[in-house]
Amino acid sequence: MSTVISLLLMADGWRANHIDEYRLSMNNILEHIGIMGILPVAIVEDENKAVPLAQTLSENGLPVIEVTLRTQTAVHVVERIVKFFPDMLVGAGTVLTVADAKSVIDAGARFIVSPGLSVKVVEYCIGKSIPIIPGVLTPTEIQQALEYGLEVVKFFPAEAIGGLSYLKAVAAPFKNLKFIPTGGIEQSTLLSYLQFPKVIACGGSWMVHPEMLKTGQFEKIASCTRQAVASVLGFELKHIGLYTRSTADAYKATAQLAKMIQYSVRETEDSLFSENYVEELQHISSDDFIALGTNFIERGAAHLAQKGIVVKPETKQFQNGQLVAVDLDLDINGFALRLIQV
């Protein structure tokens, strides 16, 4: 932290441990946004649309929202969603002043997003232990955010300034900082941003376009939300896994399939594959399984947990420190269901 900023904080009665306490308070909020991968950004002019909008997003896989302060009704929209959907993660965006921040925090907003980095707003939110995600574009702004102990910032306006290529260039010197790109991102570009490791989520309004809200097209909002979630998760049935009693049996079964339908055989450290459709493993105590692939295994597991399908922690498999497979607590006609990273 720079000497000037340190002196300012001390003058305001701050203590050295305030930022550490603030980081602890932020972690759950930011992790939740990261698990969702998408932050719907909504401009809601009619506060009566607040509850059906929140219900539509939640029921279709996105129990999170950023309500922008671009309308006179925004604070009331935040209040309504918080009241009727207490489990939904509700934040406020386009927060320009301390007065804006105070009003939405009082209304129940659990995180704040701003288009730029306002020192006064950042200091106020940190003092209130409310996560603040300020907008940045330049290395100077990023360094200023780091001086305040911020670990996640908004990259805005993402597409207008050069998109993913610019983000990769400007993010390169800042090893531990994470980004939420927002501005011009669409369904077609969402996945490419999320595949960049320094991006935890993308903000977007295409799912909750103001015209859809104005005309009450909640079925269309639901469809766009489902499509966005599906694009992120990329669920796909990959192959079946068959356990055999011995290595010899595994080789025999694989050879039979290969001969019968002309599959090529591929061998890994633990398995034999007939093409990519059948995996033969030597193990006598495990159930046969269906492998369900996903683009992001943690996000996939969290999404399924919303539907009541949880993982079996003891079945987690790691590769180079990364989770690559885990069984779900679900049986489909005698087959276990295994979630795998693709």
Task: Please tell me about this protein's structure.
With 342 residues, the chain is an alpha/beta fold. The protein has 2 domains: 3-233, TIM Barrel; 236-341, 2,3-Dihydroxybiphenyl 1,2-Dioxygenase, domain 1. The protein has 14 helices and 16 strands. The chain has helices spanning 3-11, 18-36, 50-59, 74-84, 98-107, 119-127, 139-147, 158-161, 163-171, 187-194, 210-214, 218-233, 247-261, 297-306; strands at 38-42, 64-68, 89-93, 111-114, 132-136, 152-155, 178-181, 202-204, 236-244, 265-267, 271-274, 278-282, 289-294, 317-319, 322-332, 335-341. Strands 7-6-5-4-3-2-1-8 form an 8-stranded parallel beta sheet. A hairpin with a 2-residue loop joins strand 15 (322-332) and strand 16. Helix 3 (50-59) runs parallel beside helix 12 (218-233). The longest helix is centred in the N-terminal third of the chain and has 19 residues, at 18-36. The two termini are 40 Å apart. The model is unreliable at 1-18 (pLDDT under 50).
CATH domain topology of the largest domain = TIM Barrel
> Order of helices and strands, N to C?
HHEHEHEHEHEHEHHEHEHHEHEEEEHEEE
Low-confidence stretches: 1-18
Report the count of strand segments: 16
CATH architecture of the largest domain: Alpha-Beta Barrel
Portion in beta strands: 15-25%
Structural class: alpha/beta
Q: What is the approximate shape?
A: elongated
The domain count comes to: 2
Give the distance, in angstroms, between the N- and C-terminal Cα atoms: 40 Å
Helix tally equals: 14
Using the CA coordinates, give the radius of gyration: 24 Å
Average pLDDT reading: 87
Strand order of the largest sheet: 7-6-5-4-3-2-1-8
Largest sheet: 8 strands, parallel
